[in-house]
Amino acid sequence: MAHRPTVALLGTGMMGAGMARNIAAAGIPLRVWNRTRSKAEPLAEAGATVVDSPADAVRDADIVITMLFDTESVAATMEQARDALGDDAVWLQQATVGIDGEAQLSKLAVDLGVTYVDAPVLGTRKPAEDGALVVLASGPEEAREPLQPVLDAIASRVMWLGPAGAGTRLKLVANSWVLTVVEGIAESLTLARALGLDEQHFLDVVKGGAMDAPYVQLKGSAMLAGEFTPASFGLDGAAKDADLIVTAAREAGVELAVLEAARAHFARALEAGHGDKDMAATYLEH
Questions:
Q1: DSSP states of 246-278 as a string?
Q2: Hey, CA dihedral for 125, 126, 127, 130, is it positive or negative?
Q3: Where would you tag: which of 148, 218, 233, 257 has the fewest CB atoms within 10 A of its CB?
Q4: Backbone phi, then psi, for 211, in 5-degree steps?
């Protein structure tokens, strides 16, 4: 594979667009596809070639990146690309799909005849735009070198975790903490309100101390301001990931009581029509 691989990126939403800009900025030939083409078209100004189909994107590509919503959308998109995939292509699968979904995609990769790397990311829109994602990579050793130019472009840190599947497992663990924190903030603010307090006093009393974290102030302030524009992590994605985490825990024989409750709250917010908002909108249903 050439030092500058040709890359196809499938999915230019909240995360994929920033990743695409950094890949193109690194001088790596890039083709992008998105189900809604208009969302991908601005990337042409960044140096990417916008195409009309997954097949057009992956034809002659050395590396194929999927950054889509769930297992079903990833599998359907790769099926559309099937006949155009090269024999030596490396599939860098970066969507959060859960353990069962990852196993399904791993089998699909064998059927497609491509090298498969399971590599979800930690980070939201801003780290994606800054090329500062943390990539949780798992897959064959021989895939590391071909992927290095792309990983250098999108990530501040890459953790290689062993065989494919380990990346997805660690992503679920990390997201379990993210959802726990967001749900905890929402509940603390709700309790403050119920006890007749100014909710802002909760954020003020923990600020700068051992109980504080950037997310506490960021999401807490958004909740109190009613600012739920999906700038980082959508509530629909949070609800999906909560399902994946709880399913994984149950299959592993452990009980995650906090996540079970958080899952119910995110599901309730989703059912109330808040799926297109930031995950902080779980606060609206407390």
A1: HHHHHHHT---HHHHHHHHHHHHHIIIIITTSB
A2: positive
A3: 257
A4: -90, -5
